[in-house]
Request: fold
Amino acid sequence: MADNLIVGLTDPAARDRLLVGGKAANLSLLASEFRVPPGFCVTEAAHRAWVEGLEGDVRRQVAQAYGSLGSKLGAGDPAVAVRSSATDEDGSESSFAGQYETFLNVVGAEAVQKAVVGCWESARSPRAVEYRRSRGLSGHSGVAVLVQALVSSDVSGIVFSVNPVTADRSEVVVNASWGMGESVVGGTVTPDSWVVRRSDVSVVRNDCADKKVMTIRDDAGTREVAVPRLLRTRPCLNEAQVLEAARLAIDLEARMGWPVDLECSWSDGSLNLLQCRPVTTVATKRGNLEG
Reply:
């Protein structure tokens, strides 16, 4: 069996988007310098091996990689996030934001194996197929899967190095809310929003929302709950955190060569980078922004 079924996120091979997909390749480029949760990639080669009937080899290597990640984290069965990373995902023309499945708070080797298969199957969903058709892409794409340690997020957000509503390149926009990021990405909560002027990295506008729901971990994975009343209208980030996120977006735009759409989380005050993709569209609804 080939040796490239599984590669670590910091392995040089994980920078090959044809092997690990756009999402994983982008993070791999940044993982040595930024606070990116550790993990591994179940490669497109593993997907092909699965399709060709080599299920046992793939399952065994996924279990071994998960066990190694647990050893690195000092946890027997660590909670992980399992996300698709298609070979044409998070490119300059098509981001595939929200098209494939994501599984959060996955615990145990068998559950991780099941989530990996779920990501592969989501690439054949009617929604994903229609998205590809609408962008003039081929009907099939190689699909890798990114498995990372799950961050226990106090706050999660999306950061744009260009204003996604006005297309103003002089502004950075930070949207954030309490808990894990699914409520923000899915648009079920109106997040707090800050507009940061790029020239001097200063906040020029802040809209503090009434944040009614948030996503938290539970035994079944995650669930959405009501935000405690005292937190609903309280800003979820302080100014220093907002400016740190804005500087990160400006820095990554310069490094990547295109305007960036970042998914971030804050845990115990520390900023974690969860995703870095190009801004490919401009949306009109804050908190449900595709890019």
Remarks:
- The longest helix spans residues 55-73.
- The helical segments are 17-30, 44-51, 55-73, 109-122, 126-134, 182-185, 229-232, 239-256.
